[in-house]
C-alpha cells in the first residue's frame, strides 16, 4: 500500500484530506460501489471493520480511514452498506455529532423501526439522511445497470444527485418518509425471488425431460418476460378498483391448468413449492366464491384483513 493510501485518521475539515464520497462497509456490494466511483474518476475514502478487504481498493486509489468518524468527515457524502449489520452499531451519537452538515446515505438492509430511529437521530444531529436500497447484484453496479431508490431528505438528494448518478442505472427519490424506498423496493424484490423459485422449478422439470437448460433460459427471456409485463400491467389496472370481471380466463379455468401442471411436476419428481403456493392461493379464492372471477381476484386472499385468509393445505 502506498504512503498516500496508508491507514490513518483524517483531520476533520482538512482541505488536503477531502474526497468526493466515502463508503462505510466494504463487502461485495460496498466494494463494487467504491470501485464504480473510482472508475468514474471520483476521489473515494473507504472504511471496513476488517481492513484487509480494503487493500484492493487502496491499490486502485482509494484512501483508507481507520474509523467510521474519519471516513464520514473525509467527504460531503457517505454511503453506508453494512449488509444485515445494525446501523446503530457504527452510527453512534458521537459519529453523528462529527458528521453535522454531511449527508449520510444508507443502503444497509434494516428494519423500518431501525431506519426511523437513525433518521430521527440524524435529524437531531443536523445530518441530512437518505435511506435506500439497490436492486441488483454487485455485477449490476459494475455494469452501471442497477436500480437504486432513495427516500428521506429530498434537498440532500437534489444536492448530491449528480454524484450518486455516477453509479449509473436508475436513481429515483420516492418520498420524504425514510422508509418509502424500502416499502417500494420490497414488492419488487419479493417478485424477483419468487420468479427465481419458479424459474428453477421449470429448469428442474426441463432437465428431467431432457430439454436443454440453455434453450429454456433463452425462451424464458424472450417469451415469458413480455408475457409477465402484460400480466402485471393488467393486474395493476384491475386491482385498485377491484375490476374482477373476467374477459380472459376465470380462476376456475386457471385452476384446471394448475392441477395438470402440478401433476407433471410431481411425475418428474422435481420441486414444485413455488408453483404450488400460487395454486393454493387460487384454490382459496375459489373456495371464497371467486372462481368465476379474473385471476386478479386472488389478491383478495392476500390483502390485509382483520383475520388472515389461510390458503388450503
What's the gist of this structure?
By secondary structure, the protein is an alpha/beta fold. Helix content is 49%, strand content 11%.
Break the fold down into its secondary structure elements and pairings:
Elements: E1 21-24, H1 28-39, E2 44-47, H2 55-59, E3 63-64, H3 68-73, E4 77-80, H4 93-98, E5 103-106, H5 112-124, E6 129-135, H6 138-142, E7 147-152, H7 154-164, E8 170-173, H8 180-208, H9 213-238, H10 251-267, H11 273-290, H12 299-302
Parallel strand pairs: 1-2, 1-4, 2-3, 4-5, 5-6, 7-8
Antiparallel strand pairs: 6-7
Helix pairs in contact: 8-9, 10-11
CATH topology group of the largest domain:
Rossmann fold
- Please list the strands of the largest sheet in the order they lie side by side: 3-2-1-4-5-6-7-8
Name the structural class: alpha/beta
Strand content: 5-15%
Order of helices and strands: EHEHEHEHEHEHEHEHHHHH
* CATH superfamily annotation of the largest domain: NAD(P)-binding Rossmann-like Domain
Poorly predicted runs are 1-16
**C-alpha-based Rg, rounded:** 24 Å
The CATH class designation of the largest domain is Alpha Beta
Assigned CATH architecture of the largest domain: 3-Layer(aba) Sandwich
Helix proportion range: 40-55%
Terminal-residue CA separation: 60 Å
Amino acid at each position: 500500500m502506498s504512503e498516500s493510501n496508508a491507514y490513518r485518521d483524517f483531520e476533520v475539515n482538512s482541505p488536503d484530506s477531502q474526497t468526493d464520497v466515502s463508503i462505510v462497509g466494504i463487502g461485495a456490494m460496498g466494494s463494487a460501489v467504491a470501485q464504480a466511483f473510482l472508475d468514474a474518476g471520483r476521489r473515494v475514502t473507504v472504511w471496513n471493520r476488517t481492513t484487509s478487504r480494503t487493500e484492493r481498493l487502496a491499490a486502485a486509489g482509494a484512501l483508507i480511514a481507520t474509523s467510521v468518524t474519519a471516513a464520514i468527515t473525509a467527504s460531503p457524502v457517505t454511503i453506508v452498506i453494512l449488509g444485515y449489520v445494525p446501523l446503530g452499531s457504527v452510527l453512534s451519537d458521537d459519529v453523528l455529532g462529527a458528521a453535522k452538515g454531511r449527508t449520510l446515505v444508507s443502503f444497509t438492509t434494516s428494519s423500518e423501526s431501525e431506519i426511523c430511529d437513525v433518521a430521527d437521530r440524524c435529524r437531531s444531529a443536523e445530518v441530512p439522511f437518505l435511506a435506500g436500497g439497490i436492486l441488483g447484484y454487485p455485477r449490476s453496479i459494475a455494469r452501471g445497470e442497477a436500480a437504486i431508490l432513495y427516500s428521506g431528505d429530498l434537498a440532500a438528494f437534489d444536492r448530491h444527485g449528480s454524484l450518486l448518478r455516477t453509479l449509473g442505472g436508475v436513481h429515483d427519490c420516492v418520498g420524504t418518509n425514510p422508509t418509502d424506498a424500502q416499502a417500494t423496493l420490497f414488492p419488487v424484490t419479493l417478485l424477483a425471488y419468487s420468479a427465481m423459485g419458479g424459474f428453477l422449478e421449470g429448469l428442474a422439470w426441463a432437465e428431467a425431460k431432457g430439454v436443454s437448460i440453455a434453450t429454456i433460459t433463452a425462451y424464458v427471456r424472450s417469451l415469458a418476460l413480455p408475457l409477465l409485463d402484460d400480466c402485471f400491467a393488467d393486474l395493476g389496472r384491475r386491482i385498485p378498483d377491484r375490476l374482477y370481471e373476467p374477459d380472459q380466463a376465470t380462476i376456475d379455468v386457471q385452476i384446471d391448468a394448475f392441477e395438470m401442471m402440478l401433476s407433471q411436476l410431481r411425475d418428474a419428481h422435481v420441486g414444485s413449492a413455488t408453483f404450488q403456493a400460487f395454486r393454493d392461493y387460487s384454490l382459496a379464492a375459489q373456495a371464497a366464491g371467486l372462481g368465476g372471477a379474473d385471476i386478479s381476484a386472488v389478491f383478495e386472499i392476500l390483502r390485509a384483513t382483520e383475520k388472515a385468509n389461510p390458503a388450503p393445505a
